[in-house]
Design brief:
alpha/beta, 6-stranded mixed beta sheet, about 240 residues
Length: about 240
């Protein structure tokens, strides 16, 4: 299913700012319309897939259409709609699974229970090839993604940030006009708010972020308009 018109327009405008070496395309997957991102280096065509939650036939078709060489799968956190297609896709492409932070191990171990809870086809538990931690860097061709640990929605949530393109893949930490749920096991509302204000905002108001669901936005826009995390004083 294609991304919504509003999301596409915002994404297209981001791409038109300039020929950034880091490129991305969003493929919504699962009945939850999770924003799986195919991220690649335009110079080398090396690519990573962020949060392949399902519908792997759509992801494989898009990869082929774009002519990319996927070298790794990246996970922001352990919820089923973000990881459900990961193990079979990694096996088909023969690539490693990177992330999330080890504090989300219990979510990956509990994937069969998540499948039952949300009415999804059975997804077996798996462990990643590598856990991620604060300060790690992920290389995609000539580009790098900075790993930032952002607990709150889940304890092992991470976001992935590229400074050159000023873009962040934030999973379910932050949405346009909202924030991630914290009523799941080991979620914590204040921890989430602290992650957003203490770790996302310092990256810059001009950073475009790709949330796990819904349209893109910028950190600056959310600091002005998001009722959960807006600054107490307006920005000038």
């Amino acid at each position: 299913m294609p991304i919504s018109t509003s999301t596409y327009q915002e994404w297209y405008q981001f791409r038109k700012r300039g020929r950034m070496s880091l490129q991305f395309e969003i493929v919504p997957v699962t009945p939850f319309q999770q924003n799986c991102s195919i991220v690649w280096c335009d110079e080398t065509k090396d690519a990573a897939i962020v949060d392949p939650g399902g519908d792997i036939h759509l992801l494989k078709a898009k990869i082929q259409q774009l002519g990319l060489d996927v070298t790794q799968l990246l996970l922001t956190h352990g919820h089923l709609d973000h990881v459900g297609g990961t193990a079979p896709l990694a096996a088909e492409l023969d690539v490693p699974i990177i992330g999330p932070h080890k504090d989300d191990a219990f979510w990956l171990e509990g994937l069969p229970r998540q499948s039952e809870m949300f009415g999804f086809p059975l997804t077996e538990a798996f462990a990643p090839t590598q856990w991620l931690a604060e300060g790690d860097e992920i290389t995609i061709g000539n580009q790098k993604l900075q790993v930032i640990h952002t607990p709150g929605h889940t304890p092992g949530h991470v976001i992935l940030f590229n400074d050159d393109a000023k873009v962040a893949f934030v999973g379910d930490v932050l949405f346009k006009g909202g924030v991630g749920r914290t009523d799941f096991p080991q979620g914590d509302y204040q921890t989430l708010i602290d992650s957003i204000k203490g770790k996302l905002w310092p990256l810059g108001n001009d950073v475009t972020f790709v949330p796990g669901h819904g349209p893109l936005s910028t950190f600056g826009n959310e600091r002005v308009s998001n009722p959960f995390v807006a600054d107490e004083m307006p920005l000038y």
